[in-house]
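Schema walkthrough. Field components (list of strings):
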Amino acid sequence: MIFTPEKEESLAAFIKTRMSPYRFSHTMSVVCECRELLRYYRAPRNTLIISAYLHDVTKEMPTPEQLALCEEAGIEISPDTLRSEKTLHAESAPAFIKKYLPEFYTEETAEIIRSHTTGIPDMTLGQKLLFLADFIEPTRRFDECVDVRRYFYSKENKDIRHLNETILYALRLTIKELAVSKCFIHGMTIQAYNYLVITENMK
Ligand SMILES: [Fe+2]
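Field assembly_structure (string):
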């Protein structure tokens, strides 16, 4: 599929009908942030931008509907995802895209969207960029998001090491905030954190 400006416009118009104004403005801001990050890193552009548009397409869908979509698509939901409902949309969005927007579905897009909330160990560049863009887009007001944005843009040399260190910082603040709030922490977030601690320390 060739991702023409017309296709992009129709995708933006479609998602606008699927979410609240708040979620739509966050989504558009994630798209802009991905474009900004692509100035520093060479990830597959169209795949990343399509993933950015669609990453929260099921975020405001009731949980039973999301579970039904996943079941229909044969996606098994892990006990951790069932325990932290805010992460379920990352599993149900690829199922939604495959069913309702098949021309925008690829395995790469599904992979990038699946990891955008929790992170996973050994992320691809595209996965890292959506994870970071979702965390730091400028309309985010949480202290952690503002801190991580400042950290990322404070350094002139935005090499892969800096990208990894920024993601590690985001994961550390997420884990800390969840623990302080006595919330359940998704195992994938801990695994993503541990993976980066081990690999970054080996360099
Ligand atoms: Fe998001």
